[in-house]
Design goal:
Layout lengths: L8 H10 L15 E4 L6 E4 L4 H11 L3 E5 L1 E3 L12 E4 L1 E6 L11 H23 L7 E5 L4 E6 L2 H4 L3 H11 L6 H7 L9 H18 L5 H6 L4 H10 L1 E2 L2 E2 H5 L5 H5 L2 H18 L5 H5 L4 E3 L13 E3 L9 H4 L9 E6 L3 E5 L2 E5 L2 E6 H9 L4 E6 L1
């Protein structure tokens, strides 16, 4: 007699979600490659769909743990060899994830999401909209369902960019390799209006020397640069160039300061630059941005390690967006699960703080899904 294979409880709940799945429909779906990771096994890719209804039908019957689609467009997305796919262009993608945030191991899940949101907001507002000049309508923003956000630039301006061009963009937003000698080479002729790394650095340098001129306390940065504050400031006030003191030149915006800088100035300005980059850079996963064939999570799908949705967020709602409330699937809002936990934990979801003890306990379905997907607990049974 043939034995019926039992469906794992988490997979059964994912099936419930995908049975009524309505994804954020990808543009140009027939040109996309799709892939997924099943509940048992490894990545399966090189799939193609002719319509959104075909995609929905596939997901409701296959019930994947993770679902991905290509940021690139192809003439033949189903081909297994990348060259045979006939690449036609790709969106510009930024993946912001907790793995790249300093001190993340000491943070709670909620704190981590808050820090990543701040980086995402800076990427969108400071770099993409302000400095690079993209229109808000060319950007799509998604909570990843896990520990971060994905930002898609969907524009003819970026589709043809190769990996090197995308790497330059990634390096720029990450402040990768910024140093004073290179900035000095490129600083002549730049408008010093506070824009870009050179402009922002110039503003901070001039403000620093204005602070010195007014008698303010600047010892912290001088000592960080390995300089003796008293000796350095005395030399600023007593050395002149073309009748002007060095301090007067340094506190004025523009390139002139670079023409007379010495080794001590360079060390100090590098310390100022390092502080600026720590505060203003955006931590992204650079390989995602540079890869012109990348697969990324399908909008509306479930993240297999949390049970949360890959949720689209409008730019003007990013600040108020609550991922641990708004990314909970409606299918998981009703009912309860009995779970078993070997090690207790705390988490905040759906506006409530939960303390999950060791052993068995009843929890809301969405929390049980999260606990099971993140391997903190096991689902024992469904409670109606």
């Amino acid at each position: 007699m043939e034995r019926t294979q039992q469906v794992p409880p988490l997979m059964a709940l994912f099936r419930k979600y995908y049975s009524s799945f309505r994804p954020v429909e990808p543009e140009r779906i027939v040109s996309r490659e799709f892939g997924y990771i099943p509940f048992t096994g490894s990545m399966i890719r090189h799939l193609a769909f002719q319509s959104h209804s075909d995609l929905r039908k596939f997901l409701s019957t296959t019930v994947p743990r993770h679902v991905y689609y290509s940021t690139a467009y192809y003439r033949k997305p189903e081909e297994r060899n990348m060259q045979d796919k006939e690449w036609m262009g790709a969106e510009l993608i930024f993946d912001l994830d907790a793995d790249h945030i300093e001190g993340v191991k000491e943070m709670t899940y909620e704190q981590t999401l808050g820090v990543i949101k701040a980086h995402t907001k800076r990427l969108v507002e400071k770099f993409l909209l302000s400095e690079m000049g993209f229109d808000p309508g060319e950007l799509r923003l998604f909570f990843s369902g896990g520990r971060g956000y994905h930002v898609h630039v969907v524009s003819e301006k970026v589709y043809g960019l190769d990996s090197d061009m995308r790497r330059e963009i990634a390096n720029y937003v990450r402040a990768e390799g910024l140093n004073i000698p290179d900035i000095r080479k490129n600083a002549k002729g730049v408008r010093y209006n506070g824009g870009g790394w050179i402009g922002e650095l110039d503003f901070r340098i001039t403000e620093f020397y204005r602070e010195i001129a007014s008698g303010g306390n600047t010892d912290r940065l001088l000592e960080r640069a390995g300089l003796n504050p008293e000796k350095y400031i005395t030399r600023l006030r007593t050395r002149f160039v073309d009748g002007k003191s060095r301090i007067d030149i340094f506190k004025s915006p523009g390139y002139a300061k670079y023409a007379i800088m010495d080794q001590d100035d360079e060390r100090l300005w590098q310390a100022i630059l390092d502080e600026l980059s720590r505060e203003e850079r955006v931590e992204i996963d650079s390989p995602v941005t540079t890869d012109t064939h990348r697969l990324i999570r399908l909008p509306g799908s479930l993240h297999g390690k949390t049970g949360l949705m890959v949720k689209e967020v409008s730019i003007d709602r990013l600040t108020e967006f609550e991922p641990l409330v708004e990314a909970i699937p409606r299918a998981f809002l009703n009912g309860k699960l009995l779970i078993g936990t070997e090690r207790g934990f705390r988490v905040s979801m759906n506006g409530e703080d939960f303390i999950i003890p060791e052993g068995e306990c009843e929890v809301p379905t969405y929390l049980g899904v999260y606990a099971s997907a993140s391997k903190r607990s096991q689902i024992i049974s469904t409670i109606m």
